Amino acid sequence: MRSSTARSSRRFLVAALAGALTLAACGDDDGDDGDAASTDAPAVSEAATDATEAASAASAAPSAPAATTAIAGGGAATVASVSTDPAGTEAADTEASGAATTGAASTASTAPSGSGAASGGGDTEAAVVVGAVLEPTSLDIVTKAGAALDQVLLDNVYETLLQATEDSTVVAGLTELPEISEDGLTYTFTVPEGVTFHSGDPLTAADIVSSLDAFRTDPGSGVEELASIASVEAADDTTVVVTLSERDNDLLYRLTRREGAVLQADATDLDNSANGTGPFTFTEWNQGSSITMTRNDDYWGDPATVAEVTFQYFTDPNAAINALTTGDADVLTGVNTDLVGQFEGDDDYVVNEGTTNGEFTLGMNNSRAPFDNPDVRRAIRQAIDKEGYLELLNGFGTIVGGPVPPTDPWFEDLTEVAPYDPDAARAALEAAGVEEGTPFTLTWPNFYPTTSAEYVASQLADVGLEIEIVPVEFSVWLEQVYGNADYDLTAVLHVEPRDIANYANPDYYWRYDNPEVQQLVADAKGAESEDEANELLTEAARLISEDSPVDWLILQADITVSTPNITGYPTNDTASRFDASTITVAD
Amino acid sequence: MALFVLRRLGLLVIAFLVTSVLVFLMLRLLPGDLARVVGGTEASPERIETLREELGLNRPLWNQYTSWIGGVIQGDFGESMLSRATVTSELGQKLTVTGPLVLASTVLSILVAVPLGIFAAARHRGADGIAVSAVGQLGIALPTFWVGLMLATIVGARWGWLPAQGFPRQGWEETGRAVKSLVLPTLTLALSQGAVLLRFVRSATLDVLHQDYIRTARAKGLTRTQALWRHGLRNAALPIISILGVQIASLIAGVVVIERVFNLPGVGQMLVTDIGSRDLEKVQGTVLLIAVIVLVVGFLVDVLHQLVDPRLRGRG
Question: What is the pTM of this model?
Answer without folding.
Answer: 0.79
